[in-house]
Amino acid sequence: MKNLELSERLLKLPPYLFAEIDRQKKELRDKNVKFIDLSIGDPDVYAPQSVIDNIYQAAKTKENQKYALDQGKELLRVNISQWFNKRFGVSLDPNREILPLIGSKEGLVHFPLAFVNKGDYVIIPSPGYPGYRGAAIFSGAKTYEMPLLEKNNFLPDLDKIPETVRNKAKIIYVNYPNNPTSMLAPFEFLKKLVEFCSKYGIILAYDNAYSEIYFEEKPKSIFEVPGAREIAIEFHSFSKTFCMTGFRVGWACGNENLVKGLLKVKTNVDSGIFGAIQDAAGIALNKETGYMEDMRRIFKERRDFFVKGIKGKIFKNVYADGTFYVWAKLPRKFKSSIEFSKYLIREKRIVATPGVGFGKYGEGFMRFALTVDTKILSEAINLL
Ligand SMILES: Cc1ncc(COP(=O)(O)O)c(C=O)c1O
After folding, report:
1. Please, are residues 256 and 97 in contact by the beta-carbon 8 Å criterion?
2. Residue of the nearest CA to atom 6 in ligand 1?
3. Could you tell me which residues come within 8 angstroms of residue 51 by beta carbon, excluding any fewer than 6 positions away?
């Protein structure tokens, strides 16, 4: 029936390549075939115990059983502001420059609804986190895929963005430490990025979801760059920082007008974050500095182990600078990342993510998630 047809908006979304992987995983499970899953960006490490204990207590109060404030609890905003200052040396006004989110994805995807008009461009990285593309399409924008190429250390070449796109671009999404390439952005690049956005009047949506998953150099906040506060909003996530993916909590911060615009969208969409989760998230930021160090130690050990195991064996070019992903260039004999992922499932019983699932410039690569322990990684290395 015509009335049941999906909207043009939904029909514009690209085919969900990961659905095919999910289907293959289900098939293996149904047949009771054992396989190693390196496809999921969901840490196996437990969330801090203090968070769990606090949620139980916090859930008992009547205040937390009611609708939450759209703007989030003041206490959580203060906790975020204090943590941000300690971590990045940047001071944010908890009342005007911080907005708690139901996970950073929620904010990243709703954000263009506040600022984009039909016909504007939204610039997205390719390869990149798939949420940006959906966000652009839902807002009615045209998307421009900005290539992150190996020869440029997976940084975008801003000078190559065509004039027509620059002049009509409303938002640019940038994400470092980067999913899926694992790369970090040098400070020089961040300065150039802020200059570029200021010159062309483009809003910078800086996705810093993996800011705490680093092994050598500490990632920066975009607000460490002079001038960024005029044009940028930055997104953070408790999902990766405290392995709290299922709790759904994150935050946006930065330019007051950008934060206000996003709040206006959210006020019309949701009714706040469960208060007990906000309380627990605040506790995590306040008390759990040791947790982050332990988590980094775990992921570094896995990263070193896995990279050493696969580099020079089947893969030549392997990248694993930050995040918990390893981005590996396909062996020459495979023509596409889909073909390689099918081969891995069929012949090795290993599930990993084909690079093309993150956009056309992800073709030629494979993403492995280090969200399993070294024993399982060791089995994977032996199979590869
Ligand atoms: C780059 C990036 N940004 C944002 C998110 C969303 O995280 P969450 O909504 O759990 O905070 C993810 C999740 O995988 C991601 O990889």
Report:
1. yes
2. 105
3. 242, 244, 247, 280, 281, 283, 284, 288
Ligand 1 centre distance from Cα of residue 72 (Å): 20
CATH label of the domain that carries residue 358: 3.90.1150.10
Does the C-beta of 239 come closer than 6 Å to ligand 1?
yes
> 278 with 72: CB under 8 angstroms?
yes
Q: Which atom of ligand 1 is nearest to the CA of 108?
A: 4
105 CB less than 6 Å from ligand 1? yes
Q: Provide the β-strand partners of residue 325.
A: 369
Question: How far, in Å, CA of 207 to CA of 200, rounded?
Answer: 20
DSSP class of residue 69 equals: P
Q: How many domains is the chain partitioned into structurally?
A: 2
Q: What are phi and psi of 359, to 5 degrees?
A: 125, 160
Write out the residue range of the structural domain in which residue 351 sits.
Answer: 2-46+290-383
Same domain, 215 and 281: yes
Same domain as 226, residue 174: yes
Asked if residue 236 has its Cβ within 6 Å of ligand 1, the reply is no
* Rg of the chain taking only CA atoms, in angstroms: 21
Looking at the structure, tell me whether residues 244 and 314 fall in a common domain.
Answer: no
Give the CATH number for residue 156.
Answer: 3.40.640.10
pTM, full prediction: 0.96
Q: Which amino acid is at 76?
A: L
Q: What would the pLDDT profile of 159-209 be if each residue is shown by its tens digit? A: 999 999 999 999 999 999 999 999 999 999 999 999 999 999 999 999 999
Looking at the structure, tell me whether residues 218 and 309 fall in a common domain: no
